[in-house]
Batch of 2 targets.
Target 1
Amino acid sequence: MDLDIHVLHYLVVSTIMLVCGIFGFFTRKNMLATLISVELVLNATNINFAVFNRYLFPGQFEGHFFALFGIAIAAAETAVAIAIIINVYRNIKKIMTDDVTDMNG
Amino acid sequence: MEVNLQEIVFYVVAIVVAVCSALAVSTGRILRAATYLLFVLFGTAAIYIILGYTFLGAVQLMVYAGGIVVLYVFSILLTRSDKDMKYKISKPKLVSVLLTTLVGAALILFLVFTNGFVLNSIPQAGELGVKEIGMALIGGDKYEYVLPFELLSVLLLACMIGGVLIARKR
Amino acid sequence: MEYTLLILLLPLLSFLVLGLAGMRMKHKLAGGIGTFSLAVVALLSYLTAYSYFSLDRTAEGVYPTLQPWNFEWLPFTESLHIDMGILLDPISVMMLVVISTVSLMVHIYSFGYMKGERGFQRYYAFLSLFSFSMLGLVLATNIFQMYVFWELVGVSSYLLIGFYYTKPEAIAASKKAFIVTRFADLGFLVGILIYGYYMGTFTFTPEETNLMGAGMVLPWALGLMFIGGAGKSAMFPLHIWLPDAMEGPTPVSALIHAATMVVAGVYLVARMFPLFIAYAPETLHIVAYVGAFTAFYAAAVACVQSDIKRVLAFSTISQIGFMMVALGVCTSADPHHGGLGYMSSMFHLFTHAMFKALLFLGAGCIIHAVHSNEMSAMGGLRKYMPITHITFLIACLAIAGIPPFSGFFSKDEILTACFQFSPVMGWVMTVIAGMTAFYMFRLYYGIFWGKENKQLHAAHTPRESPLSMTFPLMVLAAITVVGGFIPFGHFVSSDGQSYSIHLDTTVAVTSVIVAVIAIALATFMYAKEKQPVADALKRALPKLWRAAYKRFYMDEIWLFITKKIIFRCISTPVAWFDRHVVDQFLNFMAWSTNAAGEELQPVQSGKIQSYVMCFFGGVVVLTILLLILL
């Protein structure tokens, strides 16, 4: 299998995904939407791990496994975050970030 | 210029991923955002498969697309959060956010392009076998991952218990 | 005699046990622990006294000065270091016996007196603390250790006076006692520092060479130390705290404010006596004049007070004045030529501790029976309380100086010493001794004879106290009866030589005659139901009576000095400076911090998104900076 796709192309795709995630994190006010943006950021990094592994260190698996573990950790993080969000919803019937400002100094 | 099938697939996937991630963060309906996220995750899986990491792609599909997105959809429906999507972002804030993200994007792209990656093709490595992955996951030697694997299992267990504990009705 | 350490450690241990775990104990157990440890201490003290006085005298014919324990605590220089240890010499052993005896009696007595009181365990813990500090004070090997225990004694006195901490008068009295004595202790501390600086040592026996060089400052140092002693021993004009200290429980008054702590000042002067007599005889004379005036003043006030504990308090002040006079009239260390006062002062300290403790404990019984301190609630009590009556009478006869009770012997020696010093002093003290007899018998008749408050006694019949309270009375009365026959001069004398007391017939006869006349006068005036002479005198000299009743306005004078002069002229400007300069500066600091916080507060919006944006922006900026710099 011969790939002629330049490594940069992958990186551009992941960069777009990352920047979209960051933008979404900044602009979204619904906590679930914020979480979706975080998923984008995580995905972008996972892609980078896989790509670098394949292109730069083809004989090893570190990047591959890092991506694998990253997926598992993302799943765990999502589960806890969603549990918290549901609890917040149950308490104040809203999940806007503006309403959850207990860290206000 | 010869264009082979693989390249066509990649570029289609790349465009889908880019567009869908842009839509996922800009759409006004949260359910749609989740759907776009699903497409992005599909695209990511496809990229893994193109790279030859078919197992990773499968995991991506199962865990993300099959598990996490379903979780999202459920919680979206549970919290009826479509009403929480109606808000306005002030202009100065939007400008500052855009500026920050664009400068960040420019910085990342600058770094990527000036780094000088010379490799433009994958060496003949082929597909990564499931057997090798399995052996590496449960091996205890160098470049083998039984310890992180076990650690992760504990983490997932803790998250499960934590999730139940946090979300249960009192 | 290594076991002497136990004398100090047992009360301390008992204090710690009772103080830490006492509240969970039963009353009986807590009291038992305190009393048992004091009983052991008393036994050890008697053992110490016995074995010490059966030691051979040294070649000079004096008892050796022993230090069974001593360790260096804070070394400053080669010779200047603060030690902690135990010193045994005739007067410290004598004090040991006095303190442990009276303290044990008070411990036993308190079983009956404090029965069922709230804070019974606390009371016993404080008693142990006091016993520990007082014993440490008399056993101190050096002036600084003495000072440390001196302050500890002050603290325990404060705690015990304020024992009824829900009573505002008790709180005020405890504060007054602490502040007045603390104020006097400032003089003591300055004296100690001068002494240490010039003598190069804190021990009681400085080097001969240092003494020569410091001949000029030594009188000052000793005088300042005497101020501290005057504060503790309630000498005029620092006596004002002692009458108020009677707010504490009566056994405490007996222990602290009659027998032990208040004589600490006398003990201090006696302790420094070799230096006083050799290098500062003038200072010693000041001690004598202060003592004489105090004795007179307090006796005059005691003649008109109506609160029986106040009468006893002023009587204590007066008697301590006697001891101070006795020390002060010494002109040489040789007992045959002017050093008699030292011995008689110590003797009087010993006998006075016994009979004054007896008087206070008797007063405690009476107060226990009639629930009042005022003489108006008493009268005719001899029918109801025979044991208290007899023991009280013995103590009164002793303090009046009637032979063969102990007070006669010690007081007679004091008067002899005064006559040796100057006839004027001798006659003045004889008159004061007569006043003592008068006011004591006025008190005695007022309590046990006189007009009975039938109405009150019918409502609540006074009853004799339980055995736990009368037993100490009987023991102390027995000591009072036989105490005078102790060959005291054989044990304690100014130069350490054995000295046999021989009564000076003229002095003895004069003083006894004066005492008898005073008692007769008191009998004539107060023994009957009706007291026409006393009332007529009161009407004839209303101003004098009123002034004496108000203690010649000493408290008011002190209040005037502190409130009007010190507070207004010194404290007010200082307070103004403090409030307007120091405080304002700190307020400004606080205000500026607060204002800065107010300004920065919106940054902490609690919105994660803005935090992350700052974070991300920071990362971007830092990366750009890195790229530019590298």
Target 2
Amino acid sequence: MASAASVFLLNVTGQIESAEFPEFDELYCKYCFVYGHDWAPTSGVEEGISQIASKNRNIKQEIVWNFPIEITFKSTNPYGWPQIVISVYGPDTFGNDVVRGYGAVHLPFTPGRHKKTIPLFVPESSSKLQKFTSWFTGRRPEFTDPKVVAQGDGREVTRVRSQGFLTLSFNVVTKDLKKLGYSNSPSEPPNPLMMSRP
Amino acid sequence: MAEVHIIGQIIGASGFPQHILFCKWGVHTGGAWKLLSGVVEGQTQVDNPQNEEMAFWSHPIDIHFATKGLQGWPKLHLQVWHQDSFGRNELYSYGFLHIPSTPGTHSLLTPTWRPLGTWQEQISQMFVGGGPQLKSPSLIYGGADRYRLQTTSMGQVHLELTIIPRNFERYGVEC
């Protein structure tokens, strides 16, 4: 069993907890993962689609999905560390599904429990004419592939509007990262006098 | 050789006079550093946020370096630009930070500044926008020529970066 490790494992469980969208209701979300060439999922679900959730006006204004995420990746190299890409959809005034937000975040790097709140944004029309036609036809601009929000190149041509936040929680377990020579946490507990503000 | 992974996001910016913002970024390293994979410069999306306090870019960064020494540890330099309603871009501010050397995930907030210019330039900037820009970006992350400048403070840029060094312990380097 104790052979020299050449791969490390990243096991993530968690959930898409909820979203804050002041303007919209009856939303559902999709998730998928974007990762580099050296990475491969070994078990778990790579994409999912949630129920349609609406707000409870009496209790709180959040939209709760409580949607599970369970996945394990293996890799030889942290380059291309997986990102979870979320897209949120909901009906417009005519009942057609339109996108209400895209967002992405890297899976946490250190073992333990992590909570992340990420901003969600939608692409905007680039010209006044397109703005008018999208208003007139009721079709708003979308990304043909939501995975572009996890990529850095080619972003300079996109104009977006951020509107709303999504909260995720993760439990992370790693295996053999140390054995491969990687350190993902400080070697000693950080100096309490040097703690940065949260 | 020891290796360093820098993975994370340029999250966004807050505290700027206008909120339609984007950012040009780059990573500068010394001669002993070799880029193995990833891109070291780029430009974010333009965000016109509904909540006007903060613009969000969620711009991913994933860089893999190999190095022979600690000299020239990577620095990230930033330029924040404002886009007005006519689609014209105007430089808002400069900023830089050293990539943290401690392994783990860091929430970072970097303050930014812009050159002031003469009083004539300041008045024309009040009416028509624009403003002085640096001729060479090395002034952003270098300290040698800064004393020639007069600057004023601008907003701040939010980042979350994770540092994963590899094989530093093999050379006795504690980080």
